[in-house]
Amino acid sequence: MTTVVPAELSAGPARGSAVKDLTLPAWPVSGILLLYPLWWALGLGVLIFPLMAAPMLFLLVRRRAAGRPLRLPPGFAWWLIFLVAAVVSIAALGADPAGTVVERAAGRLPAVAYKLAMYVSITVLLLYAGNLTERELSRRRLVRLLAGMFVLTVLGGLLGMVAGNFEFTSPVEWLLPQGIRSKGFVRSLVHPYAAQIMDLVGGEAPRPAAPWGYTNTWGNNFCLLVSWLLVAAAATTSGRKRALAWLCLLVSIAPAVVSLNRGLWIGLGVVLLYVAARYVLAGKVWVLGAVALTAAAIALALTATPLGSTVQARLDNGKSNGVRAFLTEKALDGFAESPVIGYGGTRNTLGGRNSITVGESSECERCGNFTIGGNGQLWQLLYSHGAVGTVGYLGFFAYGLWRFRSDRSAIGVAGSAALVSSFSAMLWYNSLVTPLAFMVLAYALLWRNWIEGKQM
Fold it and tell me: Where are the transmembrane segments (predicted)?
């Protein structure tokens, strides 16, 4: 007896193998997050993003060429406007606005090329993370990875507290010629250190920075990641893991205070108020009691420990206020002179805020030649890429907040809270590289939650 197999069934193995070939592996995303301590120790740090973007882009293009559609995130047109504006603004790179250090466009090009490469790499990360399926990398797994990054941030903060002078020469740093690795910008990329030593409240003291390079970046990432720890803790069925998560949150108060990072403190307040408002509007009034208990616990910690005097000392010593006001004014002046496309990149001021004759030196690295646009992502966008680039950048994240506003799941609230905190942080923090990476991963989670159904 001869069995006749329909053509559709006989083609099954070939079709199955084709589907298998089109599967996106999770390792480019999970490898960045899970192994970030290794990348930091090797001296790769943020350089891992363009390195991983290459295989991610290849895998996306290969799948698209095989006929599998490439999903684009809602509002992606806004982000494309920003990228185009960033490229077009390079045309103004040779301009020397009033009050800035004169330099040839070629001298400014490496820094601009670096930023563009990072923006493109983060774009690839957004597309790749958003096109992963639940089978390839579940949202629950990605949330846990982001929660792990918060734990890493806390551990780095503790390292900065107890061993502020800890640093070492990374393998990548060893491979670079002395003339290149001695440059401040290159050193910040490849030289691992635990803290920035600064004098803010009378006497030099370490401010946690590991593994993010700068104290401000450490504080920005703290705000962007803290909500994911709570989502992961709420989703786990393990009482031990939940207790460890709450212990980590409690311990994190110490480095958050010792960092003397006012932007971090404001950002945490914004996150707390936003999350509370979302839940109250959803009818969960009990959240108000939880907020009151949290505030009482923080107040008790500040009162019963030396952390309270540290906070007060920082509030009484606003040494950076004058510089920030000076740079904001310079950024707005530059924006008024080139409002459409900006200047293609940042500029250094002639001297300091009190005199053009005061400049940076080996004895006083922070006395002058400040970077216009270095005091916040908003000011950098306005100055470097003008109104077009700024509208594109802000429009993308604002559209995401609006598009996913009805998502009341844990992922929906945590993801939108991260984006809200980024809007407050852009007044004093710059986003490249890791803060922007965590922002687009939050966006990707919101996007996938919208497509695949709200399960967390």
Answer: 38-60, 72-92, 112-130, 142-166, 218-236, 243-258, 286-307, 382-402, 435-451
